């Protein structure tokens, strides 16, 4: 019994030492980060010769104070106008890793690590629909412009490009899935273009069908625009449409070597670039295609 008690006490002591060492390291890290922040804050005001008391005097209303908008504006202003902005990517990274929260205005975290803009979600549900009469008015004006330009030897082409929720509704945040879809601007404009005999390319309908057989994603997880691969398809299809419309042979769009990778780049991770995260090169399970 004495040997067992002695062994358990040794194990308990080792565990306490580990926790103690980890606590000391964490305190050192926090102290270093705090020192860096205060140093850069001091350097900012000393360099610009600005008194701290005169820096932050934003207008404040009761409504903004109660719904935290004023606090968020102040926090963003402090980060942007002082040296503390160097810690912003680290804070954003921790918020994402721990709470799956992206500190980026008008963007939402969806399912399976997909990110969406609030504007594209509103368009998908028809919340920004302007109505049939307004759409018909725009279509008639566009028809007049198209006919006028045609007399001058110029062709006007309308292009419909899909939003991310239109092709990936199953990955939208669960909080918006309860909403009912209404008539959208895309549906009304596509019908009006057909009715008024406008020249148009419907890439929304095309990609809805194409994504079922495509080996590569039309939208990346962390991008708000069409993927680079999909953009190349848009360019090629547009050139072919113009050739059929005008009867002219345009220079061919040549796609060179196709490479795939799990780390998105450039516009395929444009939301991450805006979010100012610490680790941008986030690998995904989906292979992204690039022409090089």
Helix and strand arrangement:
Elements: H1 2-48, H2 62-66, H3 69-81, H4 88-99, E1 107-109, E2 115-117, H5 118-125, H6 132-151, E3 158-160, H7 164-167, H8 185-195, E4 200-202, H9 203-210, H10 228-246, E5 258-261, H11 270-275, E6 288-291
Parallel strand pairs: 3-4
Antiparallel strand pairs: 1-2, 5-6
Helix pairs in contact: 6-8
Give an account of the 3D structure:
By secondary structure, this protein is mainly α. It folds into two domains: 29-101, no CATH class; 113-291, no CATH class. It has helices at residues 2-48, 62-66, 69-81, 88-99, 118-125, 132-151, 164-167, 185-195, 203-210, 228-246, 270-275; strands spanning 107-109, 115-117, 158-160, 200-202, 258-261, 288-291. A two-stranded antiparallel ribbon has the order 1-2. It has a two-stranded parallel ribbon with strand order 3-4.
Number of domains: 2
Give helix % range. Answer: 40-55%
Strand residue percentage: 5-15%
The helix/strand series, from N terminus to C terminus, equals: HHHHEEHHEHHEHHEHE
Distance between the termini: 71 Å
Gyration radius, rounded? 27 Å
* Shape type: elongated
Kindly report the spatial arrangement of strands forming the biggest sheet.
1-2
Enumerate the spans where pLDDT stays under 50 for 5 or more consecutive residues.
Answer: 39-54
Helix and strand composition category: mainly alpha
In brief, what are we looking at here?
By secondary structure, the protein is mainly α. It has helices at residues 2-48, 62-66, 69-81, 88-99, 118-125, 132-151, 164-167, 185-195, 203-210, 228-246, 270-275; strands at 107-109, 115-117, 158-160, 200-202, 258-261, 288-291.
């Amino acid at each position: 019994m004495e040997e067992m008690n002695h062994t358990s006490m040794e194990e308990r002591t080792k565990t306490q030492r580990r926790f103690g060492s980890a606590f000391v390291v964490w305190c050192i890290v926090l102290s270093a980060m705090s020192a860096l922040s205060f140093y850069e804050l001091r350097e900012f005001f000393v360099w610009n010769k600005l008194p701290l008391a005169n820096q932050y005097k934003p207008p404040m209303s009761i409504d903004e104070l109660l719904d935290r908008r004023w606090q968020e504006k102040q926090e963003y202003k402090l980060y942007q106008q002082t040296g503390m902005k160097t810690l912003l990517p680290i804070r954003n990274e921790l918020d994402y890793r721990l709470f799956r929260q992206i500190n980026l205005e008008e963007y939402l975290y969806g399912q399976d690590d997909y990110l969406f803009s609030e504007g594209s979600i509103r368009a998908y549900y028809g919340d920004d629909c302007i109505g049939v009469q307004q759409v018909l008015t725009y279509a008639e004006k566009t028809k007049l412009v198209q006919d006028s330009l045609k007399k001058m030897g110029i062709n006007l082409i309308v292009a419909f490009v899909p939003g991310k929720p239109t092709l990936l509704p199953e990955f939208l945040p669960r909080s918006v899935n309860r909403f009912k879809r209404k008539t959208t601007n895309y549906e009304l404009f596509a019908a009006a273009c057909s009715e008024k005999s406008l020249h148009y390319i419907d890439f929304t309908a095309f990609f809805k069908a194409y994504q079922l057989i495509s080996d590569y994603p039309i939208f990346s997880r962390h991008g708000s625009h069409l993927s680079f691969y999909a953009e190349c398809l848009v360019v090629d299809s547009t050139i072919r449409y113009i050739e059929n419309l005008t009867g002219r042979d345009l220079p061919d769009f040549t796609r060179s070597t196709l490479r795939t990778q799990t780390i998105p780049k450039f516009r395929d991770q444009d939301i991450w670039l805006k979010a100012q995260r610490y680790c941008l090169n986030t690998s995904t399970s989906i292979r992204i295609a690039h022409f090089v």
